[in-house]
Specification:
The chain contains eleven helices and six strands. With about 250 residues, it is α/β, with parallel strands linked by helices. It has one domain. A six-stranded mixed β-sheet has the order 5-4-1-2-3-6. Helix 1 packs across helix 5 and helix 6 packs across helix 9. The chain starts with a strand and ends in a 10-residue tail after the last helix. This is DUF429 domain-containing protein.
Length: about 250
């Protein structure tokens, strides 16, 4: 199995792209770069079995409706005392609230924070990957939305503060200790130096979790909203389980 991880930023120079090859008892990072273009990302994803993208794949349904009604000047203001809750629904997706409830982490708002710029790019990438039919934003196709910090939290590793200068190296050491079957090879110095490279590797590990049925999926009730807004796949197993896992027949992959 080949998984790809993308730490997507609005600009190429801050976008990490990792390719991980999985065998029976090891996983090897075979390619890792920071400065990935759209063409490079699309090419890598097409050659993979599953790709994890660290970027929102959609916007809150309430926000999409708000923008449409705002254009026509027909916005209905919230009832007195409900303004904060109304704005929260505009800012956060269902999957963001699920992540908050299960991990305590608060994903950035795709409609109110700068991560929206990455989401614009992600929307373009999904269109490039499947120009004739929309890819599932709920993770049922080749691409799944991932959140490296939340994945690290689920695996019991440092998940906050590691993006500050010099701290990524410590996390790399912890990751390799927890996953001795993972080989970074020549790319280890880059992971220790650049958090966007490290996040791309973590995204590829999270993609493996999703591909093998070891990540959260929307319930039937959640699926219609997730298909529009996107769904963050959170690992549900330990890191050790990833290397012994077999692809889940119920999870589409190539």
């Amino acid at each position: 199995m080949i998984t790809v991880g993308v730490d997507l930023a609005a600009a190429d120079e801050r976008s990490g792209l990792a390719v991980v090859s999985w065998s029976r008892d090891r996983a090897e990072v075979t390619s890792l770069a920071v400065g990935a273009s759209d063409a490079e990302i699309v090419s890598a994803i097409r050659a993979s079995d599953k790709a994890g993208i660290d970027s929102p794949l959609g916007w809150p349904t309430a926000f999409v409706s708000f923008v449409s009604t705002h254009e026509s000047g027909a916005v209905t203001p919230p009832p007195p005392g409900e303004g904060a809750a109304w704005r929260r629904r505009l800012a956060y997706r269902m999957t963001d609230e699920v992540v908050r409830a299960s991990t305590g982490l608060i994903p950035m708002s795709v409609s109110a924070d700068r991560i929206g710029h990455a989401a614009f790019r992600a929307a373009g990438l999904l269109s490039m990957l499947s120009p004739d039919a929309p890819l599932s934003r709920a993770g049922d196709d080749l691409v799944v939305e991932v959140y490296p910090a939340a994945s690290l939290f689920r695996w019991g590793l440092t998940h906050q503060g590691y993006k500050r200068a010099g701290l990524a190296s410590s996390l790399v050491s912890s990751l390799l200790a927890a996953a001795p079957w993972l080989t970074l090879g020549e790319f280890e110095p880059l992971c220790r130096r650049r958090h966007d490279a490290l996040d791309a590797v973590v995204a590829a590990l999270a993609a493996r979790a999703a591909a093998t049925g070891r990540a959260t999926r929307p319930t039937p009730q959640q699926l219609p909203v997730a298909a529009s807004e996107g769904w963050i796949a959170l690992p549900t197993s330990t890191l050790a389980d990833l290397i012994s896992a077999r692809p889940d027949a119920s999870v589409p992959h190539r």
